[in-house]
Amino acid sequence: MSAENDFKYTDSDWEQLIQLRNQFLLEIGQIKNQYWTSPQLLELYHRTFAERIGWKWEAVLNELKKKEAIQFAKQYVLLDFGCGTGIASSKFIEIMGPSLISELWLWDRSKNAVRFATEKLKTKNPDILVKDLQQLEAPKRDWILVLSHVINETSDKDLEVILALAGEAQYVIWIEPGTREHSSRLVDVREKLKGIMNVIAPCTHSEACGMLAKENNRHWCHFFAPPPTEVFQSAFWNQFSKKMEIDLRSLPLSYLVFSRVPQLNKMGHEMSRVIGRPRLYKGYGKFLLCNRKGVFDSQVLERGNKNLFKEYKTTVFTKEIEML
Ligand SMILES: C[S@@+](CC[C@H](N)C(=O)[O-])C[C@H]1O[C@@H](n2cnc3c(N)ncnc32)[C@H](O)[C@@H]1O
Fold first, then answer.
1. What is the mean pLDDT of residues 21-49?
2. Whole-number Å distance between alpha carbons of 302 and 107
3. Fewest beta carbons within 10 Å, which of 23, 252, 261, 283?
4. Of residues 250 and 115, which shows the higher confidence score?
């Protein structure tokens, strides 16, 4: 967690953050085209909302790292689309290690954002060449595309551009808020990209998304990242939570990871993904599971699954379990 939050926030700072949050809550197409009006606003965002987004990236990237989902034998250009203050690339480099990245390319329709992120990331990673893109282009070498919290701001036309770009990358890692609306847009992306790329997370299969089945329209594909425990003792985050009316315990996200290389299940068995948070009772739990057969509720006994229950009682992000 960042120690930077010793920073003193004025009433005007809080007001700016509230207005920014109101922007983010608007529906697709209603969000202003250019809302990064000053470096000061970017700094406020970076210390607060982006910090929380960073915890989501930590959850996803730690899972990918554990599964060795990215080929470490190579070096990649990392392209951050809609970089904002650069939290996605910052977390990628921190967790995957700087040696995986030969260059970092930053792209945003806001020049203020690109400038801000470039400065931050150059200072933090002096050995990585950071390029502030003046126009969108795909690297000619092996590269990884990261996207974070942009889908609600992109028109259908923008989305086509992103999909064409994504189709050229070695890996695509895309994280969005865990609302029904964001998740449903990501499912559309999945269905369009899965003919070109291999979807490797959170899906354990490459069949059509089970969420699209009529009987599942009350569900959506989302997960909960665990915030750092220090947050709950922090006077700053407590104040942030009250002012923004945000529950600190809940960090919902939707995400997708694609790879050009098919991922072999190293365990050799078929797996189911646990969606959202299971409801745990004495001796059993109700789990929403996803696998190649679809998305369905399943009652899982605690006996024989003690570790799984223990993890869900604490702070696990999401688990794959052997297919039932
Ligand atoms: C909510 S912010 C998220 C910023 C950052 N990715 C993060 O996770 O903190 C969305 C960003 O996407 C940028 N953006 C939205 N649509 C875009 C587009 N079509 N092309 C480039 N950038 C875009 C905005 O300018 C803004 O910086």
1. 89
2. 47
3. 283
4. 115
